[in-house]
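Q&A log
Question type: sequence-to-structure
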Amino acid sequence: MLCQIDKKCLEAYGKRGIKLGTERTRAVLDGLGSPDKNLKIVHIAGSNGKGSVAEFITQILLAAGKRVGTFTSPAVYCYEDMFRVDGVPIPRRKLDGYLKEASEYGGRVEATEFETETAAAVYAFYKEGCEYAVIECGMGGTYDATNAVGGKEVAVITSVSLEHTQYLGDTIEEICVNKAGIIKHCPAVASACISGEARAYLESMGAIFAEPVENYNADELSFLYKGKKYFLSAEGIKQPYNAACAIEVARLLKIDENAVCVGVKAAKPEGRAQVFRSHGKTYILDGGHNAEALRVLAEFVKNEYKNSSKTLIYGVLSDKDVRKNAEVLADMAEEVITVSTFGARGVTAHTVAENLKYHFSKVNIAADLDEALRRAAGETVIVCGTFTILKEAKLWIEKE
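Response status: OK
Response body:
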């Protein structure tokens, strides 16, 4: 059963929206006794792949017998999922306590919801006796709330593409510089997928690049990295590259190779090409929201479900490039059903449909996600575009 949490203490902060800068989060952390100074922190930034790399690193550290806190965002299926200790969400009552303590200091400096959550996560990991904290950036790097932390063991850059240009810059180089801002007094690891001017800049910062993977086998979910064979549980063509990033991090942290193999196999990122089967249909849930992520999903669907009829259910938030995404989505399914998203960045199903009608021969509009899932005619149903619709989709699949 999916869980929910009472977030009343954060409602006022949520209204403050996005505020760039680390000073408010730093103030909250200092008010809580600077818990980050007692943790070994792995900090992850990137346009795509952050959550997956965080999961691989977490599982590797767990396999090595370490106690690990993991902070990722946004929540996929459950709010508590953002705050994990040893891979398990912090129980609701405990988490409420940590959030309330952080909120007391957050209120004094007008911290946003995410800033308060970041500080609460770090505080929780310290109080729960973690040795390591794996922390995913919310947006960008330099001015992201998570960059307030000190005590970094390693910084990781998973990918760089045009996103959040109103905040991060209009060019790949500007965005790369922003993301590389998490490299502070620590070594850095970057994905082999990063190329061009972004790679050149990260090389100038001294980043260690993971090498390209070889011999990826989608049937047995295996790949070769530096001559060694690793096995996965995570599906998707980019997961070997995410795993390779985690392997390089583990080597910097001097983690035993056996733990690395066990952790790579154990990692199961949620909401990334995640497959469910129910009532004779296959459902694929993926929170990919930009063209780069959707291109990876499209390739996965094409390779693994080429002989299956497909229906796409798509919702998106207002700060995403729907028209660019549509070009990628067009090759994924025979029909698309659009659904509305809600909140400050919500977009109506009708608006989404207008942007897709030139790329699909069959575009339908659903009143809600329940209707979309009931109407989906394909043998394979892909729900994607934003993490915000995945929880409801998973609930529906499990209920049905």
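Response note: The first helix runs from residue 8 to 14.
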